Protein: Alpha-mannosidase
Organism: Paenibacillus planticolens
Amino acid sequence: MSTKRTAHIISHTHWDREWYLPYEKHHVRLVKLVDTLLEKLDNDPNYRSFYLDGQTIILEDYLQVRPDQKGKLEKYIQDGRIIIGPWYILQDAFLTSGEANVRNMQIGHQDARKYGAVAKVGYFPDTFGLVGQTPQLMRQSGITNAVFGRGVKPTGFNNTVSDGDYESSFSELMWEGPDGSKVLGILFANWYSNGNEIPVDRDEAKAYWERKLTDAEKYASTGELLFMNGCDHQPVQLDLPEAIQTARELYPDTVFIHSNFIDYLQSVERSMKHELSTVKGELRSQRTDGWSTLVNTASARVYLKQMNQVGQAILEKVAEPLAAIAHALEAGEKYPHHLFTYAWKTLMQNHPHDSICGCSVDEVHREMVTRFEKSRHVAEAITADSSRAIAEAIDTSSFEGTGKDALPVVVFNTSGWERTGVVHIEIDALRLYFRDGYTLEEASRLAKEADVSGRVLVDEQGHAIPCTVEDLGLQFGYDLPDDKFRQPYMCRKVKLTFEAEKVPALGLKTFAWVKRESAVAPSSLLTGDRVLENAALKVTIAEDGSFTLTDKKSGRTYRDLGIYENTGDIGNEYMYKQPDGETPLTTRGAPAQIRVLQDTPYQASFEIVHEWEIPASADEKLEEEQRDLVYFPHRKAQRSTRMVPMTIRTVVTLSRSGKGVEIESSFNNQAKDHRLRMLFPTDLNTSVHQVDSMFEIPQRDNVPAAEWENPSNTQHQQAFVDVSEAGAGLVVANLGLNEYEIVQDGRNTIAVTLLRAVGELGDWGLFPTPEAQCLGTHTVRMAIIPYSDHDMQASAYAEAYQFQIPWTLCQTGVHPGRIAPTYAPFQWEGGDMAFSSLKLNEGTGDLLLRWYNMRSQSAELQLSSNIPYYYFYKSTIMEEHGERVDTDAAGRLSLPVGACEIVTIGMK
């Protein structure tokens, strides 16, 4: 009898490290599962293989408790019976940076290779949507497929499949990224548990397979049918060989195989006869009713997203480039690969979808805070060591002629563009070490008596720079030398705040605080009672605290910016649900207290205070509906009539050279079951907008597809969102505020979520999460950047990216050195190329620089180096040595770059 179909049964367990149970309780179950798996593999050769969920951290977690089993694990991995990789963890891609996803793939491969082969499977079983650049990232990782469960086809409550008008004709499809990269997409059309708990009993098996085979054939384009034997935290099915034998006896015309992904994918590729649908770009479930996209995990527990943004930025945009430069300058600091791997792993342990998405029980997210801090502390230590080493290599001797007793200060710009901005640093005006014989009393007295007046900040040419000095008084400090015991001291500390102009990309600029008469003329950016103004922008504050922003170049004025909106939220950590019929509360027209907060030659700001009242919570019906497991779209709860105060303090700041207006908002949340947003009406005529995502600026529709029924159309962002028309555009940048909406109010208003407070996890049961109400104090930051043309748009994007990156400053001494007071190791030009990373390859010691093309048009990257090298070569995100790239007589590289291409350049 000829074979009509093959049933590929792949054993696996989808392992959320933490979710509805805290990490350690899941950990205990993981140890039991792997113990059972190893015993099964020992005793049953017919149990062919098990896929370990695509994430190598499972091996770390298991061996942390069972190190004695490492040899056995290695044996079965090398034998191909346990299949591992390619990731370190299964991340949420929309909420983690491009570089974090690259490190995830790199570290997953590194760890997997220690045991054996890496599974080249683009595995995304339960990622809450997929970014558009995934095909290119897979291709650059040597992976030609993507296996996923969400984004193209709807799944409903508890992962039930909905029927409807699908984007793909089959569960197999071609997925094309914005650069043209293509991979074979495999959609879990019947979810990643469609082969779970296969019966051995013949009658049960008959009913089971009648249903399962029909369901699989409904979507499959070939006779190669996929059955995933496992689910979330699913134990190993020990009688699977017997169940497969029963199936073979019942269906002799079907080949049942205990399979694996590699064999299955090869079989599908060999058997394809139909032309597959091509799906392009992002997979965000936009062709659904909008109620099960899980998009509002972008605003669940916003404090976690803010900590993640800080952690990612300091690792990839500060510590790595500074460590690479320090190493390349041979400044005495070796590149600390081991520390970076540890810091990245610790950070990425917070990146699984149930972790960074904020959709777990409270215990999970408490532990995440500690991990964020641990990773950040390592990055801060590397940053301090690297910046100090680079500073010591700078020739600061020229400052001896700019005034007396020079105290040099180095400003590092670790972004990929020249940068101007307001910076601050705490420096020691006088330091007295106890090792020099000072008693505590003497050191304290001398430090207190030190004269910190009569000084001015100067650049390397001796030009005075406007600077604000805050005397911080007597402080204790200490050094931790590499070659001796700790060295305590007393010091007189001051804080310097000033505008650092035109600090080169990936470079530094040195200033000095010297004894000299000041020649800085006073000036102000305040031009009216409630008006801020510089050469490019004018900001006028209204009585209700909203403001008008005028872009002087285009003449465009944006009105009613910065109004707060508050609504009820009777949803859960996954999805927002506004009470039916509710009218949002806003601060529009509500009088605010407004005062000048800062007035210096380089920066000015207003403080705006709203004394507001909002409902204390949802009414009692919400708790009843939660207990009854009422699906959140069907809930009828309303907001309480009891009100609680909400005082919001907003600081609006404009810098002398600023291209945008910065906003800092702080509040003490004492209400439950609600959402707080800030509104930015654009009044721009457009049906689309652009938004920052992973290595891409995708264009999205302002209005959802016809299938969309959810009144809310919130979406993911990373650094910014941009609404524009011909000749004008408005970019709203953020720090860790990953949710926005283009509100269809006739004004194309950009609404950014500042806080979402809910009381339950959601999904498959009732899991109360009182800490997800986010009671307490919060501070958020944004920047509003207008622009007038294409070139200015790219500049606005660069400004938004720089907003993500903290300045790094370091005090140093007067000394000779090998590099100039203003220095950059690289110079590059690339039009719409966005710089992403600078790091060292652990295996080769080569410097690796990465950019991505923000546009769907080709570009040209030009690069030159002040660091000695043999040659440039083109690499991938996996940092393999690729083809050499020729340079001109001056050593300048010129490389054509494709539309939306991610480009990595190696320096040998």
